[in-house]
Design brief:
Elements lengths: L6 H15 L3 E5 L16 E6 L5 H16 L3 E6 L4 H13 L4 E4 L8 H9 L4 E4 L10 E5 L1 H16 L8 E6 L6 H19 L3 E3 L6 H4 L6 H15 L8 E4 L2 H14 L7 E2 L6 H8 L6 E3 L2 H16 L7 H6 L5 E4 L4 E3 L2 E2 L2 E4 L2 E3 L4 H6 L4 E3 L5 E3 L2
Parallel strand pairs: 2-3, 2-4, 4-5, 5-6, 6-15, 7-8, 7-9, 9-10
Antiparallel strand pairs: 1-3, 11-16, 12-15, 13-14, 17-18
Helix pairs in contact: 1-2, 2-11, 3-4, 5-6, 8-9
The structure holds beta-D-galactopyranose.
């Protein structure tokens, strides 16, 4: 089995490292799992891994997978979670620079707010892998993420297919809940969905009853569930209290979908179950999908995102030429593309990117996509839990 991460093997460590991290910092290293000596270049090279928070479920998995991947490869790691506090993340990364790390892996809380510390890392000659969320700083060496625009188009297309918008008479009523405006990804998710749905909005087949269709109005600070809940309650009270039906609520991820679902359950006068979209495969949302309270989520196998980051990190530290040949050389058993056009850290400064492929998960295919792959287990009630 080459490079296909069995989440089962990693998740056991995840439980351990979560205890160890508790939102703070952990520093550790293992002898190389394959019995080899320390990585090329002599000595134990050190990797700084900066994650945004533990309050959003997926980042706990990202941090653990990344930590385990680099430790198993013989590197020393410093893993931090910055509690969605940008000043704390700056401080965490500055500490890593002071610890003389050989590589930084950073998932930014705010893609615009790390310039100073990214510049400091650049001045220190430390390469930076920008993990999942693009940082607007030219010192970033490479970007590893999922195709963020495609996440949105998958959500939009799910709505088109489920309502059969090309044939149904309509009109159908819908609302949007987007992500954190400080997160560069949120704009891509939203635009991908809007680009699919806009023709149906223009034709009147889809009707945004609140009229709230611009990103800034429908955005959700910090992707916060309670914030999404309260805005959805306000929209329902203002536009749907007269019994108007809402057929679709396009949510950019699971933490916001959780809030919208709670609002629908507590404050919606209609009798129908709206289509509600999401992203990440968070445990509570997978339960809602089993219970038909949420319709779908876009799953991103972050275990594989960690594998790409490890192999890219190795290549950087070995001084290898980095291009699409890394994909074939690494033998990954999952799809990944090398993209030099889609993401730029400043005008005209494109950031070479490795983009993995997101996947639609519904009640009908969650066993195949999530349980058979080893990422989740299913309990006697049919609910899914991260593999432990
Ligand atoms: C995004 C990430 C998504 C989403 C959100 C909350 O940047 O790509 O998976 O869930 O953050 O963590």
């Amino acid at each position: 089995m080459k490079k296909r991460v069995l989440a089962l093997a990693l998740s056991a460590t995840m439980a351990l490292s979560l205890t160890a991290c508790g939102g703070g910092t952990s520093t550790s290293s293992n002898p190389p799992a394959d019995g080899s000596t320390a990585p090329e270049g002599g000595g134990t090279q050190k990797i700084g891994i900066s994650m945004p928070t533990q309050s959003l479920e997926r980042w706990n998995r990202d941090g653990s997978y990344l930590d385990q991947q680099f430790k198993d490869a013989g590197y020393e790691t410093i893993l931090t979670y910055s509690d969605n506090d940008t000043n704390r993340q700056v401080n965490d990364i500055q500490n890593m620079i002071a610890e003389d790390v050989d590589l930084l892996v950073v998932a930014a809380i705010d893609g615009e707010a790390l310039n100073t510390v990214m510049n400091e890392a650049g001045e220190a000659g430390i390469p930076i892998i920008d993990y999942d969320r693009l940082i607007m700083n030219d010192n970033v060496s490479y970007y590893v993420s999922f195709d963020n625009y495609t996440v949105g188009t998958l959500q939009g297309q799910y709505v088109v297919d489920t309502l059969d918008l090309d044939n149904a008479a309509g009109p159908f009523n819908m609302e949007f809940t987007a992500g954190d405006p400080a997160d560069n990804n949120a704009g891509y998710f939203f635009q991908g969905a809007v680009d699919v749905l806009q023709p149906y909005i223009d034709s009147g087949k889809l009707n945004v009853v609140s009229g709230q269709t611009d990103f800034d109005t429908v955005a959700t600070d910090k992707w916060d569930t309670q914030t999404a809940l309260e805005r959805a309650q306000n929209v329902l009270a203002s536009y749907y209290a007269d019994g108007t039906q809402v057929d679709v609520w396009l949510c950019s991820n699971d933490s916001t979908a959780l809030g919208v679902t709670q609002a629908i359950q507590s404050d919606y006068a209609g009798s129908n179950q709206p289509i509600i979209t999401g992203q990440d495969g968070d445990e509570a949302n997978l339960k809602n999908i089993v219970d038909s309270l949420q319709s779908m989520t876009v799953y991103k196998a972050v275990a594989n995102e960690a594998v790409v980051t490890l192999d890219l990190g190795k290549a950087i530290l070995n001084g290898d030429t980095i291009d699409e040949s890394l994909i074939s050389a690494s033998g990954w058993e999952f799809d990944c593309s090398f993209d030099t056009e889609s993401y730029s850290t400043s005008d005209g400064h494109n950031c070479p990117s490795f983009l993995l492929v997101p996947d639609v998960v519904t009640k009908d295919n969650m066993m195949e996509k999530l349980v058979d792959t080893g990422y989740y287990t299913q309990d006697a009630d049919g609910y899914l839990h991260p593999a432990a």
